[in-house]
Amino acid sequence: MKIIRTRNFLWLLAISCLVPIFYAKHEKLTHNIVLKSVSECPINGTDPIRLSDVYSTQIASRIYEGLYTYHYLKRPLEVIPNLAEGMPTISPDGLVYTCKIKKGVFFQDNTCFPDGKGRELKATDFVFSFKRVVDPSNVVPYADFIDGKIKGLDQWKKSPDYNQAVEGLKALDDYTLQITLTAPCPQFIYVLTMWITYVVPQEAVLHYGDKFKNHPVGTGPFSLPKGFNPQAKQLTFIKNPTFRDCFFPTASAPEYKHMLVYAGKKLPLVDQLITHVITEEQPRWLKIKKGEVDIIPLDEGSAVALAHIKEGNLLPEHLANGLQLDQSTSATTEFFCFNHNHELFGKNDYLRKAMSMAFDRATYRQMFYNDATDLAKSLLPPMMTTNNHNLIAPYDYNIAQAKAYLAKAGYPEGKGLPMITLDTRIETAYKNKADFFAKCMDKIGIKVEVITNVWPEFKNKIFVKQATMMHLITWAADYPEENNMLEGISNKNLFGLQYEDAAFNRHLAKACAEPDLNKRRTLYAQLNQMVAEKVPAIFAVHAPTQFIHRKEVKNFIYTVFNLSSDQYIAIEQVEKPQ
Predict the structure, then answer these.
(1) Domain 332-542 classification at class level
(2) Is the CATH number of domain 68-212 3.90.1150.10?
(3) What CA–CA distance (Å, rounded) separates 544 from 365?
(4) How far apart are CA 552 and CA 542, in angstroms?
(5) Distances (CA, A) of 474 to 257, 396, 487, 536
(6) What per-residue confidence (pLDDT) applies to 155?
(7) DSSP-derived 3-state class of residue 73
């Protein structure tokens, strides 16, 4: 996702950074529809188990697929079969998942197969792919979604042998996969939608070895025939000619009824995808103004949004030029993380509370989001909980009280407190937000130095080196249940917090195991309140997801959980402005 996640995902940083997007151009002589897209950040390979950021997972999801996915047009989100024939049969004790695999699904043609022809997908391919997730020879940022959950898999990974059977992973026949869990896990169905459980063929992994991450071979709607070049600024995907019959949905939520004019059409709806890596927002904006791209994302704290969006819409001149604004609530939270391994923050609750109360969230929202976002009282985004209206934020903006807490922390007026470093990304929007935070802290005598980093080094500092004092991230959920965000507090590495709270961990474990969803959500709300009171991080806003697209683009919906949205995008063939 969440950083958009890097589970150590950063899944979140950004949502900020949100996912790759789209541009379209028509080759009238060949009737070939080309959808040109933009990735805000460099792509880190295409092997799904090795990915930890939303940009790379978006790219991989064009090629690879899993057993289940989310319905593109239904709200609330609904898990539906993808490579599975139907929803899994689950045993009464919640331990055994039996999944029927669709027949007639083929891997993309590739030299790793005899005569270069892709073979049919089998249940054994999922057994192999699940084993790869826990194989200690692989670096898998999201392995904890699988680790410890499947019976016998922990024992297998101690001495990995792909010919060795695993009790909880069985191909009952060519088209039946059976997964046995170590304990009931109501959220496991969501794991089966995620990129770490995407299926890969063993032939490709063996054929390409260490270079497999640059030679993707999946079952998805698009292929990358020239492979992946990590240095390339442009990636060209083509429609997979062996892609199974997959069709545009015939049902939708009320707000998407107009998209049903495409109901029943074979997917994907474009012939080619060209993705450009453009890390700065201003060049993206200039390209869409010129009609060279059809969709661009807006950064968090977007300078483009501040300059060109008023009262929730684009300025009239941009509307007249065929541009439209797409804005939606997101499953993200933007926050300033403390590294609790650092002696300043690990034990000094008063210091963290003082800094939280010195942070002016309302002005931050106005400056960077034109007030078009929700203030964050705690970790959970409003779209993921119905209980946020009951949440009490005890350490909200209050300069006088912040100064009092700073004195209790042992640093009256900041005296004796060393310089605090705040790491962020190098892009202007992130630096500006970090600078604002530093100015807030200066009002109570705390000095903050802002350090900017390119994306790869930023992730490395947080999740590998653990070398920050504080860092600014945006985190997006990987699936639509609250525990997925709350686990970032219990998992010391997930947000880079290095935070430890045994009581919180116990309560979260109890909530996750509760079979009744409504009861789980009540427990999650209580945990969210605990987070607000403990201040493991300073929560800023729940940033909206914003895109600008040309009116020719149809069916564009961004949902961080649905990574395979490209196949649903259509282009209305009209003349573009010169």
Answers:
(1) alpha beta
(2) no
(3) 11
(4) 29
(5) 32, 19, 15, 15
(6) 96
(7) coil
**pLDDT given for residue 31 in this prediction:** 60
Q: What own/partner pairs with CB < 8 Å and gap ≥ 24 does 504-509 have?
A: 504/530, 504/531, 504/534, 508/483
CB 65 within 8 A of CB 80: no
Residues with Cβ within 8 Å of 456's Cβ and at least 6 positions away in sequence, in order, are 42, 44
The domain limits of the chain are 4-61+228-329+554-571, 68-212, 332-542
Distance of alpha carbon 152 from its chain centroid, rounded?
29
30 backbone dihedrals φ, ψ, rounded to 5°: -105, -10
Which of left, alpha, beta for 312 (phi over 0: left; psi -120 to 50: alpha)?
A: left
Q: Can you give the pLDDT at residue 10?
A: 37
Helix (H) or strand (E) holding 366: helix 361-369
- Tell me, letter by letter, the H, E, C secondary structure of 195-245: HHHCCCCHHHHHHHHHHHHHCCCCCCCEECCCCCCCCCCEEEEEECCCCCC
One-letter amino acid at 287 equals: K
User: Do the bridges between strand 176-180 and strand 169-173 make them parallel or antiparallel, or are there none, so unpaired?
Assistant: antiparallel
Chunked mean pLDDT (size 10), the chain, 578 residues: 39 36 38 84 92 89 97 94 98 97 98 97 98 96 92 96 97 98 96 97 97 97 94 93 97 96 97 89 90 83 80 89 86 95 92 98 92 90 78 95 98 97 93 97 98 92 91 92 94 89 96 93 95 97 88 90 90 60
**What is the H or E stretch that residue 368 is in?**
helix 361-369
User: Minimal CA–CA distance to 227: which of 219, 236, 478?
Assistant: 236
